[in-house]
Amino acid sequence: MANAIEIRNLVKSYGDFTLSIDSLDIPCGCIMGLVGSNGAGKSTMIKSVLDLIKTDSGDISINGISNRSEGSREDIGVVFDEIKFPQVFTAEDVRLILRGAYKNWDDALFDRYIAQFALPTRKKIKEFSRGMKMKLSLAAALAHHPKLLILDEATSGIDPVVRDEILDIFLEFIQDEQHAILASSHIISDIEKAADYVTFINNGRIVFCEEKDVLMEKYRIVKCGNDELASVNPDDIVGKRTNTFGAELLMLSDRVPEGFMTAKAGIEDIMLMIIRDEGR
Amino acid sequence: MKGIITKDLLALKQVAATMSLLMVFYIFLGFMSMNESGGSISYLSIMALVINVMVPLSCAGYDEQCGWDQFGASLPVSKNNIVACRYIVNLIIICFTSAVVFAGNMIFMAFGGNASGLEAYIIPIVLSMLYIALINPIIYKFGVQKSRILIIAAILVPSMLIAALGMLMSSAPEDKLSRLTDSLDSLTSIPVMPVLIVSVVTAAGLYVLSMLISTRIFRNKEL
User: Fold this and answer.
1) Complex ipTM, two decimals?
2) For a FRET experiment, which of A33, A77, B105, B179 has its CA 20 to 30 Å from that of B189?
3) pTM metric for this prediction
4) Interface touch B222/A54, C-beta < 8 Å
5) Which residues of chain B make contact with A86, given a CB cutoff of 8 A?
């Protein structure tokens, strides 16, 4: 399977913070969810991929072309956390701008998305709701037939109904095996619902990059009392959340001692317990 | 590039009505001030200059407000071309206001007004280009909000220098003053055309230099 994005030896430093990624591939035909706390390095990674910041070192290629080449951006659709068009513009203005920017701009496809999202074409963006703004951003990102969609917190602050609608569009987009999505989000339920792979970044480093289904099977939440906790090998504990009655442990499934009560670990559980553990 | 230029022109559409009204008002004012000796609408040129220098601020202001630079840099347009587009848009507006000044003067002359010299058209163009050449790199470096003081200084410092020169002249001893006025008079004997040509060429050179500096700043900017 070809890779939509390949990152090698990426380093970007901002004083006391350094993003460092040795190797990361995002295969075509999949949705890669990028999770991590605020300031973990998700946006820095996305900005590096889009060549919006000067990296200290490393190579990034998009569909086999260096991310620094203009050509690589012809096949990318980007949705940021906020709409990046002046608030006085209308959807019609957005069309005029992007028609002049992309070789593959498709007016009919833009019209289809505008109709599908029930967006007004003559109303100014400042009069749009947040959901409408994000839908317009998405229509703008998709109407030039991109192969890669990059979404930076695109679903944050949107109500669940609109989010669900947008996630359906992502799933439709990914039906083409040449396509891929890189989506960073704080809304873990969106990642759990749509992503095929999950990359967890913490303190500028990739903690894991796994297939979602494998990840969900890999870890277990183990609930135990203080007595049972004492019998667990500390090296087998990936993360720990203690309370007055005992603890909740994040453990690799094959390391859970027999007889312990276990529950499936969600991405949020895994993320939170690893962050807490690294913070200690 | 077409898309980026379209974006700036669409943003300017928002202030176009105000600008057009101002220019029409100044043409109208010219007619109102007409007398037996003709009158003139030379201040229309000053209005054109004001509009020309407002354009880069308006464009950058809209961009900054919505974070356009980040989105613009994700489009299949090089950062060099993004900056070049801004300078092209500035030139388009200079051409537009110059055309209005020219048309205004033609109408004014048709109704018996005095004809404006070539310098009335060229000087606003040259000054606009110089001003844009000065402020665009500042805007790219610091953003509109942060560079406001520097931009105001860019207008105030030359004005204050001229005012100071005026004060010096008025307080100078008579013999020195007469020498100064004589030397200023000798300037008027210099043919206008070569001066205008040199001014335009210099302004164009500085405009291109400014574009190269802005490009360098934008290429190194963290978006």
Assistant:
1) 0.86
2) B105
3) 0.84
4) yes
5) 11, 62-63, 65-66, 68
